[in-house]
Amino acid sequence: MTVRTLRDLPRVERTLRALPRVERRPRLRPFGGSGRVRGVSGSGRVAGRSAAGRRGRVVVVLSLSAVVLATADLRGHASVLRTAGAAVAGPAEQVLAAVTAPARALSGDDQVRVQELERHNARLAAELWAERAARAREAGRDRLQAAHPRMTLVPADVVAVRGDVVTISAGTRDGVRPDLAVVTADGLVGRVVEAGPDVATVLLLTAPHASVGVRTAGPNEIGTVTGRRGDGLLSLRLLDADAPLRPGQQVVTLGSSGGSPYPPGIPVGTVERVDPVRDQLTRTALVRPAVTFSTLDVLGVITDAD
Question: What residues does the Rod shape-determining protein MreC beta-barrel core domain cover (predicted)?
C-alpha cells in the first residue's frame, strides 16, 4: 500500500482498522510441580505470541511510513507555497533593493570620502563666518572713525562682559591707559579703569558709581549724569533748578580738564522723562543712553582729541 499525498491517509487508516485485532491473553500461572504451563511449548512461550508480535510490527511500520510520506507531501506543498510567495514578493524586493542599493554601496572608501567632504564643508563654513565677522568689524571701525573724525582712536573688540565692566582687546601696547574715554559710533560707553599689555577693563556709564559731567544741547545747562540699575536709563541732575528741560533734548559730555577722561561734545543720551517735582537746588530727569549697551561690539579708545 502506497501513500503519495495527504488524500491517501484516510484509505490507509481504513486498512489499518480492518486488520484483525490482537487480543491480549491472560497470563497463565504455573501449577503442579513440573513448572510447566498448559499450552506452552518447551521454550516457555505462549502459543501464537510470535504471530501477534509480527502483526503489531506491521502496523507500526505502516503507520511510520504514512507519517513519513505525509511529511514529505507537506514539504512538497511548502515548496510550492514558497515558490508562489517568491513570485508575488519578488518584484517588490527588487524595487526595494534598487532603492537601497546606493546606501548599501556607500561603504569603505566612499564613507571616508563623505566624511572628508563633511569636514571640508565645516571648514568652509567656519572660514565664511570668520570672513563675515572680519568685514563687520572693519565696517564698524570705519563708522567709528567717521563719527569721531577729530579724535585719535584705538579700535578694540569686546572680549568679555562682567556686570558693569567689559574687557576689550587693546592694552598698553596699543597706547591704552587708565582714564581714557571709550566710545562707539553712537556715543559714550565709559572709561578705562585698568589696562594690561594686551587687554583693558572699561567701566560702563550705566554703573551706579559712574559719573560724567554733561550739558544739555541748546540752552547748555550744566549737570551730571550717573548710572542706575533696573530700567537701563541714566539719572540727570542739572545744577540750575529753574533750567528749562524737556523730553527729547540731547545731552553731551561737558569735557574734563585737559580732555581726560572725557573730551567735550560726545553724545551721552536723550532726555526721556523730566521729574515734575523740583527741589531748591537742582532739577532732575531720566536720560535714555545713546549707546545700546546690550549689543556692544567694536569700541574705540580715545587717546587724543583736538
Answer: 165-302
* Per-residue confidence (pLDDT) for residue 233, from 0 to 100: 95
Amino acid at residue number 252: V
- Determine the pLDDT at residue 135: 84
Other beta carbons less than 10 A from residue 301's beta carbon: 27
Mean pLDDT (the chain) is 77
- Non-local (6+) Cβ contacts of 227 within 8 A are 164, 204, 205, 206, 207, 208, 209, 210, 211, 234, 235
Give residue 250's pLDDT: 96
The pTM of the whole model exceeds 0.70: no
Above 60 in pLDDT, residue 144? yes
Residue 241: pLDDT band by 50, 70, 90 thresholds? confident
Q: At what angle do helices 49-105 and 9-18 cross, to 10 degrees?
A: 160
What count of residues does the chain have? 306
106 pLDDT above the threshold of 80 = no
CB 251 within 8 A of CB 264: no
What CA–CA distance (Å, rounded) separates 182 from 205? 10
Grid cell digits, residue 76: 512538497
